[in-house]
Amino acid sequence: MHIAMIGTGYVGLVTGACFADLGHDVVCIDNDLEKLDRLQAGEIPIYEPGLDELVGKNVSAGRLRFSTWDAGDIANQDTIFIAVGTPPSKTDNSADLSFVYAVAAEMAPKLGGYTVIVNKSTVPVGTGDEVEEILRKENPGADFDVASNPEFLREGSAIDDFMQPDRVVIGTSSQRAREVMQAIYRPLILNETPVVMTDRTTSELIKYANNAFLATKVTFINEIADICEATGANVQDVSKGIGLDTRIGHKFLQAGAGFGGSCFPKDSLALADTARKVGRPTRIVESVIEANTERKRRMATKIISACGGDVKGQTLAVLGLTFKPNTDDMRDAPSLDIIPLLQAAGAKIRAYDPEGMRHAKNMLTDIEWGTDSYEIMGGAAALLILTEWNAFRMLDMDRVKSLLAQPLIIDLRNIYTLEEMSRAGVTYHSIGRPVVSL
Question: Which residues are designated catalytic?
């Protein structure tokens, strides 16, 4: 199949490379000439494990290429995937669909034979209808269908998520479009991947409902962690105890500093906005949003309290800035709330992240940046762990203690056991577990 992927961001680039690896002919289209030059030179603009090798392999095989808008690249495709950003609106909590609509208007005059236009971007209910209306208006004679095919890629494991998905969701009422989409996903269908065939509106809602539910699980266990801290219980044991119930499951029950990233925050906001607009406000989702926002702020208070109630003039060493490991994504990362609040309380910050500092330097100020984990620790009053990178899980505790002004670790990701920290001889604060004191 011949596929055009509009947008070479996280979703577009990963999805395009994976489709090419399944044997399709894929062109990734973008209007960012600098990014295209980098991609054509083999430079991947995002960090995603294995993506550079996958892109290089399929470019060399001739199945993947990169291009600007070109009539031939659009007219000769079986499918055109729209994979552009849908960030929160600057005026309210709705999704900004201007990029999606601009792409629809741009492609309409270039369409050739029958084409399936696929919304891969995360979009609210009704967006497919709007895209279809734009295409009909701009090119009344065009032969096409508009389908929905939401992505469920986790940053840091996106290639595996694509190649071995829990499910593929396809939304269209057109039999022709269904047959095209089934042909595209045929290699995965042959591997018995479940396929949810539904209408376009339902497909659009599935994505938002999915992420809002996972965000609810994260927020729920974080609130349970607060109860654990107040009562002396251990949230990790609580998580295990309830996660073994197959009706609940263990995934997304790891307590921490709050959720962030490119999906949960904006998708929860957009779902709540949609619900209000149709007169069915979602009290659960709105509470999740409020609780998560407050949690990030409360983490700064927790850190200050662990440091004796005052951090003015103290240097704090921060390990991890991205919202999760194995990505360079800083969007809505807890560090973006926590660090400024610590600075406002008078703390000086030294920070290190294996992949996120390039973006973090544009989002955080007055930071002393390190080049490795240990460089930032010298003379610091405390070590803060904000992201659970594997590189931070096996720190040399004797070296850590020798570098810190006092043996104090505040771990917002629970990457060490209480027993380990007790043996190491450090004061250790974590989430939803008793404090280890010297």
Answer: 263
